[in-house]
Amino acid sequence: MPHLPRRTAILGAGAMGQQIAQHLRQTDGWLVAGFFDDWATETISPEPVLGTMAEVEAAYAAGQFKELLLGIGYQHMAYRQQVFNELMAAGIPFAQFVHPAAYVDASAVLQPGVFISPGCVLDLNVQLEPNVFLYPGCIIAHDTRVGAHSMLAPGVRLAGRVRVGERCFLGIGTTVMDGLTLAAEVRTGAGAVLVRSLDEPGTYVGVPARPLPPPL
Ligand SMILES: CC(=O)SCCNC(=O)CCNC(=O)[C@H](O)C(C)(C)COP(=O)(O)OP(=O)(O)OC[C@H]1O[C@@H](n2cnc3c(N)ncnc32)[C@H](O)[C@@H]1OP(=O)(O)O
């Protein structure tokens, strides 16, 4: 008997939600049930907006979808965490999506809500905590762990035994040397190269990366 497709709803109908939907549509075994969004009532996509965020639980109970993925972007890191935790606590399952054009070693440990875009490579014993989102082309070397709700922009490279804290956003092309630990809520600018561990939240830019002073 053929497997039923994974009927998945996406939280957020904006650009990130649309990107997630497109990957699902093009991957065997997945089906986009629709979107939940507090602002949009319709989308350019074939699937409907099923309701607002407050209506997710009732839609799940009514069987409108089986799993969730989160399409809330890096400008809203605290909200990403809040929505994920609330819906997990309500017993609504989050999917894990690994694009077929990614390489994920069999030893990797992926928690619920993880999303892995095309071109990513995860080597031996990588751990992605809940709700981690990898944009295309991220390379994560052996024994590295990425903390819950963090997002890695396209082309981020983490060497071996790195620890990335929760709610971090690593900007496009960031490189992190082996064995470093990054605190929670670290952000990095495009092309940053991290050569020391970072104990404090904040934005870091440059080669080697330095703190970006907060605006006056
Ligand atoms: C799929 C996707 O598209 S995912 C998103 C991918 N996009 C990214 O990763 C972008 C990451 N963001 C950046 O790099 C941004 O420049 C940030 C967040 C680091 C800083 O943004 P802002 O706070 O707006 O800083 P602003 O642009 O005003 O620059 C402040 C200073 O930092 C410098 N600066 C900004 N970004 C960088 C950078 N990546 N590397 C080095 N210096 C930088 C600026 O030149 C400026 O220096 P100055 O004061 O000497 O003139």
TrEMBL record:
Residue numbers annotated as active site: H142 (proton acceptor)
Recorded superkingdom: Bacteria
Positions annotated to bind acetyl-CoA: I172
Domain named PglD N-terminal: residues: 9-87
Record's signal peptide: none
Sites annotated Increases basicity of active site His: D143
Family, as annotated: Belongs to the transferase hexapeptide repeat family.
Protein name, entry field: Acetyltransferase
Organism: Hymenobacter telluris
